[in-house]
Amino acid sequence: MSKKVFIKTYGCQMNVYDSKRMADVLKPVGYEVSENSDDADLVILNTCHIREKAAEKVYSEIGRLKQTKEAKASDGKNMYIAVAGCVAQAEGPEMMRRAPAIDMVLGPQTYHRLPDMLKTAEEQRTGGRKSARVLDTDFPVDTKFDHLPEESEYTGPAAFLTVQEGCDKFCTFCVVPYTRGAEYSRPVQDIVSEAKRLVASGVVEITLLGQNVNAYHGELASGETASLGGLIRELSEIDGLGRIRYTTSHPRDMDDELIFAHRDIDACMPYLHLPVQSGSNAILDAMNRKHTREHYFDIIDRLRAARPDLALSSDFIVGFPGETDQDFEDTMDLVRRVKYASAYSFKYSPRPGTPASVLETQVPEEVKSERLARLQALINEHQLEFNTNSIGREMDVLLERPGKFEGQLLGRSPYLQAVHVDVSKAQNTLDVGGDNPYSGFMGKLVRVRISEAGPNSLKGELVSALH
């Protein structure tokens, strides 16, 4: 009889990919994915260390799972609790000490060893321990990608594909170099093979993932090195792959080949997430970003010259140690000049072990809150303006799932906008197949005329089915 695993994913898209691959690793040893932790034999919390109080949220969840584990034990059943991801990497030994209910702690680079960890945990449990004590947060010499099985069948038309991991940038606010390790790029052929399998399973859109995805420098079969732009060109040759996205980029690695990929390759979407973090050169220097606002503006100018319809998003940290009123106004000025289609903004919060966490020039909380409110108001204004300018336009939308109302499907525009599409009026005029009147549209790229716009989504009517 098969066992069940429940995986709860926190944080970034790369964790979403890792959670899927953990399920793939466990499938050959008899584990099926469950949507409910209460009936699982194994629960994995795949954690993220970027946001404030990330570890505390995990401990709270472990407290709840502990009760379930104890209730199962009283019925003679085993349940294992594993913590994976970046919090596990950063705080593994402390987590084992603080939460005895945890059986396994594993870092982002070691989840391919899960079957062996489970075997060890089972042996320890058989020996009489209520909880096992398995800790594996190494940075292996051999990459995990060399040991992962082929992916199980994907559901849905959009998928993530990790092409690069780790970071060599050492921004002073960030824990990623310490939790994910040094930059590593997968070989081009491995990525192309995985992408082909995804497309064969019905995937239309692939998002390439990396902590610094545009630092990609993967090996070609010839022994030469391909940049991210070169990789995108290779992937664009796959029949049936309609859309290619990538995230997250760093301004220091935005080269001409990648810019020209946006110009030359139709499948390369006209939307780019390019975090700047601050508009102040003084703060950028304190963050160790190794680029200036002028450099960033130059990149934007070159991108828009190559792809005039390109839309941008970004990340901002407000209240970094030492940020003055003028530094913040420089950020506001940068936002006004670039006019992002969307952006993520957060108050600075110290990450233990990072250089910025020990600076004595911390900004008062009330100042950070006031600045963040102003920045977000400006970003929201620009986002609504961008969405409103979509009204009357026709654009390709990838339909992914049912909407809230009868005859409505939800998809994504080329600019990652959520689009609610009314397909009910077109069901009799378009040959889409399927027993359900709307099922034939799911997973399809369709042409949509935008009729309404809100701050966070669009509405439109179906014009034609594409493929």
Keywords summarizing the entry:
467 residues, alpha/beta, 6-stranded parallel sheet, 12 helices, globular
Secondary structure layout plus pairing:
Blueprint: E1 3-9, H1 13-26, E2 31-33, E3 42-47, H2 54-74, E4 80-84, H3 85-98, E5 104-106, H4 114-126, E6 134-136, E7 158-162, E8 164-165, H5 176-179, E9 184-185, H6 188-200, E10 205-209, E11 218-219, E12 225-226, H7 228-235, E13 243-247, H8 256-264, E14 271-273, H9 281-286, H10 293-306, E15 311-318, H11 325-338, E16 342-347, H12 365-388, E17 394-402, E18 408-412, E19 418-422, E20 445-453, E21 457-465
Parallel strand pairs: 1-2, 1-3, 3-4, 4-5, 5-6, 7-10, 10-13, 14-15, 15-16, 19-21
Antiparallel strand pairs: 8-9, 11-12, 17-18, 17-20, 18-19, 20-21
What does this structure look like?
The protein has 467 residues and is of the alpha/beta class. It has a six-stranded parallel beta sheet with strand order 2-1-3-4-5-6, sandwiched between helices. A five-stranded mixed beta barrel has the order 17-18-19-21-20. A three-stranded parallel beta sheet has the order 7-10-13. Helix 7 runs parallel beside helix 8 and helix 11 packs parallel to helix 12. About 2% of the residues have low confidence.
Structural class per helix/strand content? alpha/beta
The strand count comes to 21
Biggest pleated-sheet summary: 6 strands, parallel
Shape: globular
Low-pLDDT stretches: 428-435
Strand fraction: 15-25%
- Cα distance spanning the termini: 41 Å
- As a whole number of angstroms, the C-alpha radius of gyration is 23 Å
Could you tell me the mean pLDDT? 90
Q: Classify the helix fraction into a percent range.
A: 25-40%
For the biggest β-sheet, the strand order reads 2-1-3-4-5-6
What's the helix count?
12
